[in-house]
Specification:
Length: about 220
């Protein structure tokens, strides 16, 4: 995960997304700071009071509303906890980073040179649009880089290609890679809910012998 490319991409998305207000941005950056502090794990626990302090949000209702909207807009995934002794969890979706980029996040780069602002602007302009993939091959490569099943790649592409790359057929997708991550999370949840038939049960029901004597009465 290259956090510089991630921030460049996320700020570009912020400028295009008219649904967001300063509170959304402030809350997201508070989560990013905690994500950074925890060395960018897949998921991490959060304390509401700590996040509200970091984001300068004074209202609990505003905090929960903006958090749910960031989840709905596919900037992150929110796992609420109904246990007062156990905090909620956040999964930060990764933007603007390819699998071929490596970055050692455990050791900060003290010698990193500052880049002029106009060069950053050029880099942002050159970032590929993330609203939808060019073709099936791009989706297959992304799923392969995440070690996800090839069949899910086909199902994901065919589904959103058929509805014009819109969530619920109405809202245009902002970032298809984030949508793919959410797709796989739901696929894993569905898989867990399915109850497979025990192998031992199948074997018991299929007990037969090849040398059965059909002259004997049943």
């Amino acid at each position: 995960m290259n956090y510089i490319r991630h921030l460049n991409s996320i700020f570009l998305l912020f400028t295009k997304d008219s649904r967001l207000n300063p509170t959304h941005v402030s809350l997201y950056m508070a989560f990013f700071q905690l994500w950074n502090h925890n060395r960018f794990p897949k998921q991490f626990y959060v304390n509401r009071e700590e996040v509200m302090k970091l984001s300068k949000i004074g209202s609990k209702s505003t905090y929960h509303r903006c958090l749910k909207e960031l989840d709905h807009y596919k900037y992150l995934i929110y796992f609420p906890s109904h246990n007062p002794f156990k905090g909620s969890q956040i999964k930060m979706l990764i933007f603007g980073t390819t699998s071929g980029q490596a970055l050692d996040l455990a050791v900060p780069n003290q010698g990193q040179a500052l880049v002029p602002l106009y060069k950053h602007n050029k880099q942002i302009e050159n970032i590929n649009k993330l609203d939808q993939p060019k073709n099936q091959k791009v989706v297959d490569e992304f799923f392969k880089s995440q070690n996800w099943p090839d069949i899910e790649s086909k199902k994901f592409y065919n589904h959103y290609q058929g509805i014009g790359w819109k969530v619920g057929g109405k809202t245009k997708i902002v970032n298809w890679q984030a949508t793919a991550q959410n797709w796989m999370l739901k696929a894993e949840e569905i898989k867990k809910k399915e109850t497979p038939i025990a192998v031992s049960q199948i074997r018991d029901n299929l007990k037969t012998t090849k040398d059965k004597n059909y002259n004997q009465p049943l």
